[in-house]
Design brief:
The chain has 289 residues and is α+β, with helices and mostly antiparallel strands. Helices cover 22% and strands 33% of the residues. The protein contains 8 helices and 12 strands. A 12-stranded mixed sheet has the order 7-8-9-10-11-1-2-3-4-5-6-12. It is globular and about 60 Å long. The relative contact order is 0.21.
Length: 289
Amino acid sequence: MKRYIAGLACAATAVLGVPALASTAHAQVADPVTALKSQFKNGRGVTYTDTIKIRRQQKTEVLGKRVGELQFGASGVIASDHTTTLRIKEGDLGLGLESNDEEDSPESKRFNKLMAGLAEPERVVRIGNKAYISGGAFSRFMPTDKPWLQYPEDTHGVTGSMGQPVNAAEPATLKALLAHATVKQTSAYAGKITYSELHKVSPWFRAGVGQKLLAPLAKMKINWKLFLDGRGLPARLTISSGGATITTAYTNWGAPVAVTAPPADQIATVKDVQAGFEAVETIPLLSGK
């Protein structure tokens, strides 16, 4: 089981690549960054769907989907709300949660219970640098009257961090991508960018990989391919490598979006969840470090 979870972590931070595009130089009809900034109006936003695929046993399988919406302010993305669902069932994890095997330690049983939550949808609401998580890995340790966990730092969640790490709806990110484009077509670009370069400009990327970028990751490269719609706005972004592919479809640009924080009386703290876990050690990902 630990090997399986390690695989999920690798999928979330893998170097990603894309198939080659024929390189042709064409002037873009509209500047994509300017087109993007024209969408930044209070109470408006865009919806998106991430499809996460992995290559396993010579077959491509959909591992999960992340569906959400971004809310804009005058200067860009100010909030997001997404739900990630993995295509796994509790039985697929082989945890044996109902086992009465006396040889199973309490810590092992608690770990199994934590991992079983991966089979449940996980919702994450992000407003500014605050993040609230409901469902997913922590769901079975939450107080019954408080289904939301306020996370110590900005995050996409446990399974949510397996979604698209590159946000083409961020002007600085889009500008950085285009600056590294090696393929420029009328409505398509492709290129490579390092983790370090993205980490410097993208709050979205930092929420996925961590606020502090580990040195071994700094020089890792992401290969990307971006398609634009007729207005010069991002329509589809694909990154892939090592048998893993993530494709994001952007739709409903300019639609009304209002992301709100959960009610205060429904929000649990890290200490609340750790108390439910009754662990000797802190729950993974809840140390705030």
